[in-house]
Amino acid sequence: MKEELIEKKRNEMVAVAAALGLTSNLVLQCSQELDELLVEYQNNQLQQETSN
């Protein structure tokens, strides 16, 4: 599930960057949201590894 959200946000960021340029505020926003998703995913993975 989380992987799908990450991929969707990554694709959105790439599309926005292609349309508006890399310095667009919307690209920055997408990038920050993607970072948050990635951190959540990594934290969940670490929790699963330590609980096993």
Automatic annotation (TrEMBL):
InterPro entries tied to this protein: HLH_DNA-bd_sf, Spo0E-like, Spo0E-like_sf
One GO molecular-function entry: protein dimerization activity
GO terms classed as biological process: regulation of sporulation
Protein name: Spo0E like sporulation regulatory protein
